[in-house]
Amino acid sequence: MLDKLTRWMQKNEESVSLDEFGIDRANVPRHVAIIMDGNGRWAKQRGLPRIAGHRSGMKTVKEITKAADEVRVEVLTLYAFSTENWKRPADEVDFLMRLPQEFLATELEELVERNVRVRMVGHENKLPSYTLAALQEAREKTLHNTGLILNFALNYGSRAEMLDAVQMISRDVKDGLVEEEQIDEKLFASYLATKDLPDPDLLIRTSGELRLSNFMLWQLAYSELWFSNVYWPDFTKHDFYEAIKEYQQRSRRYGALT
Ligand code: FPP
C-alpha cells in the first residue's frame, strides 16, 4: 500500500514511462472498463461533502483517459452513473448529472485534439437535457475521430440493457425479421448497446468492493478482473498501468485447457 506522499508525488508527476513499468505494448487490453468507486468514502475521510469526492473523481477521469490513450487502449468504458444511482439524494444526483457538462466544457477541445471519440451507453430518456446536450455535442464533434473511444456508461444497467435486447429480438421475430433458430450469442450481442465494441478485456474496480453492480454482465463473461483498494479520486496512472501489467501476466483460456 503506497503512502499518501508517494501517491501525491505520483499524481503530480508529468510523464510516466511505460517501459519503466514493463508494459508490453503488443499485449495491451483492447477494452478496459472501470467501476469508479469510493468517491463518497474519499470525501468522508477528509470531512468533505460527498460531492467533493465526485469532483475529485472527475480529475481522475481526465488522468486515466490520458493514460489509456498513451498506452493505446482502444476503448475505455467508465461507469459514471448506474440505473440504481437515482436512489441517491436529489442534490447528489443533480451534481453527478452536471459533471459530464462540466468535464466536457474544459476537456472537449483536448479530446478532439487527441483524436478521442466520445460515446455513451445507457438509457438517454431519463437524463436531464443539459447532460444529454453536452454528450451529444461531444459525440458529434468527435464522431470521425479514430483514436481512443471514451465510452461513458450513464444511466446504465446491464439487466435493463439485456431486457431491451430481448424485447427488440422478440419484436423482430414477430415481424419475421429474425428466425427463432437464429438467436445465438452473436445475434444477442448485436442487440446490446455495445454491439460495435469488443467485450472488455479488463475490468477494474476501485475502493475495495468486490462486486459487478449490474455492470456489463454479458460483456464481462471472459474479462480479467482487477480490484484495487484505492478510492477512485486517489487512483493514478501508476495504478492503471499496474492493472495492465498484471493483466499481461494472466493466461486467458476462455474455458479451454491451454
Ligand atoms: C461511486 O462512488 C461513484 C459514482 C456513483 C459516480 C462516479 C462519477 C465520477 C467518478 C465522475 C464522473 C465524471 C464524468 C466526467 C462523467 P460512491 O459515491 O458510491 O462512493 P462510496 O461508495 O465511497 O460512497
Q: How would you portray this structure in words?
A:
With 258 residues, this protein is of the alpha/beta class. It has a domain at 28-157 and 200-247: Undecaprenyl pyrophosphate synthetase (3-Layer(aba) Sandwich), CATH 3.40.1180.10. 42% of the residues lie in helices and 13% in strands. It is built from eight helices and six strands; from the N terminus they run H-E-H-H-E-H-E-H-E-H-H-E-E-H. The protein has helices spanning 4-12, 39-45, 50-70, 90-113, 129-141, 158-174, 185-189, 237-249, and strands at 31-35, 75-82, 117-121, 149-156, 202-205, 224-227. Helix 3 packs parallel to helix 4 (90-113). The radius of gyration is 19 Å and the shape is globular. The chain binds farnesyl diphosphate.
Observed structural traits:
six-stranded parallel sheet, Undecaprenyl pyrophosphate synthetase, globular, binds farnesyl diphosphate
- CATH evolutionary superfamily of the domain at 28-157 and 200-247: Decaprenyl diphosphate synthase-like
The CATH topology of the domain at 28-157 and 200-247 is: Undecaprenyl pyrophosphate synthetase
Q: DSSP helix count?
A: 8
**Residues in helix, %:** 40-55%
Shape, principal axes of CA atoms: globular
CATH class of the domain at 28-157 and 200-247: Alpha Beta
Main sheet: which strands, in order across?
A: 3-4-2-1-5-6
What's the architecture of the domain at 28-157 and 200-247, going by CATH? 3-Layer(aba) Sandwich
Order of helices and strands: HEHHEHEHEHHEEH
Mean pLDDT: 94
Structural class estimated from helices and strands? alpha/beta
Our measurement of the CA-to-CA distance between the termini, rounded to an integer number of angstroms, reads 33 Å
Care to count the β-strands? 6
Rg, please?
Answer: 19 Å
Task: Describe the largest sheet.
Answer: 6 strands, parallel
Ligands in the structure?
A: farnesyl diphosphate
Beta-strand portion reads 5-15%
Would you identify the regions where 5 or more consecutive residues have pLDDT less than 50?
none
